[in-house]
Amino acid sequence: MPTIVVEVMPKAELLDPQGKAVAGALARLGKSEFTDVRIGKRFELTVDGPITDATRATVQQIADDILSNAVIEDVVAIHYPEGSEA
Amino acid sequence: MTTRIGVITFPGSLDDRDAQRAVRMAGAEPVALWHGDHDLQGVDAVILPGGFSYGDYLRAGAIAAVSPIMTELKDAAGKGMPILGICNGFQMLVEAHLLPGGLIRNAHQQFIRRDQLLTVENADTAWTHQFSKGQEITIPLKNADGGYIADAETLARVEGEGLVTFRYAGVNPNGSLDDIAGLTNPAGNVVGLMPHPEHAIEPGFGPDTPVAMRSGVDGLAFFTSAVQALQAV
């Protein structure tokens, strides 16, 4: 069954406390070439049946309204499986 | 007629019983409401309690904000019903877009539990009119995701319209922008804050004060404010 991937990241201009904590750990381990770490989310949506234009519209709406909060996050990418291009 | 104030219980709510007790001590009748119902049971006001609804999955308050009962709650909010969101309830109100901005993980990544000094910034809301502007109160704070954020435009509007209802005083415990601890909507009927007024209503169980340990009852005025506002209608 086809799987659609939605990627959400905290807005670039806002503090990402989790990313900052990981960046601090990397610095302590001597991995000083990495100046910043940001942590986002990856959602995998499995669809029962073919991916239609209606499916794509629904995925966009879910991504914008539920999977992300536009106040603090951006939907940075939605990946559809190969061969499902409209 | 007795004022009836509903408290909605979600999967993972912790402080719903405490909120019900605060309602009773303020002289109103608490009504237990259920997240899965499309029914506010004719209550006069609603409290969204603290806790970790749905384990804070997705984002704190996000899944609760799309619960069945939120349809009726949003409708009631638009009609002026007093609604108070405490901690997780505040997170639900921002996720439901009833209050502006968002709440993220505390800046230092740690859960906090402390008796928090607050400054009352807006004493014209349904839940704060028994305070006075500039008054300092002590209310317990306990959360992991209490960092208030908003983009520059939203923040300017929140400040310009006087929507900031409480600010952290003395110390900013979680990195909140402009020390924001609580907000109201422009109409003043919807209020949300991270600290827990329902834990400061009864001598012996509240925060410490200079007078005596656990004697702080600054939270009671939230609930008596709402009762008074409703009985004046």
From TrEMBL, chain A:
Part of the FGAM synthase complex composed of 1 PurL, 1 PurQ and 2 PurS subunits. GO terms for biological process: 'de novo' IMP biosynthetic process. The keyword Nucleotide-binding applies. It is an enzyme of class 6 (ligase). It comes from Plantibacter flavus. This is Phosphoribosylformylglycinamidine synthase subunit PurS. GO terms for molecular function: ATP binding; phosphoribosylformylglycinamidine synthase activity. It catalyses: N(2)-formyl-N(1)-(5-phospho-beta-D-ribosyl)glycinamide + L-glutamine + ATP + H2O = 2-formamido-N(1)-(5-O-phospho-beta-D-ribosyl)acetamidine + L-glutamate + ADP + phosphate + H(+). Belongs to the PurS family. PANTHER family: PHOSPHORIBOSYLFORMYLGLYCINAMIDINE SYNTHASE SUBUNIT PURS (PTHR34696). Pathway: Purine metabolism; IMP biosynthesis via de novo pathway; 5-amino-1-(5-phospho-D-ribosyl)imidazole from N(2)-formyl-N(1)-(5-phospho-D-ribosyl)glycinamide: step 1/2. Transmembrane segments: none annotated. GO terms for cellular component: cytoplasm. It is found in: Cytoplasm. Its EC number is 6.3.5.3. Part of the phosphoribosylformylglycinamidine synthase complex involved in the purines biosynthetic pathway. Catalyzes the ATP-dependent conversion of formylglycinamide ribonucleotide (FGAR) and glutamine to yield formylglycinamidine ribonucleotide (FGAM) and glutamate. The FGAM synthase complex is composed of three subunits. PurQ produces an ammonia molecule by converting glutamine to glutamate. PurL transfers the ammonia molecule to FGAR to form FGAM in an ATP-dependent manner. InterPro entries: PurS, PurS-like_sf. Pfam families: PurS.
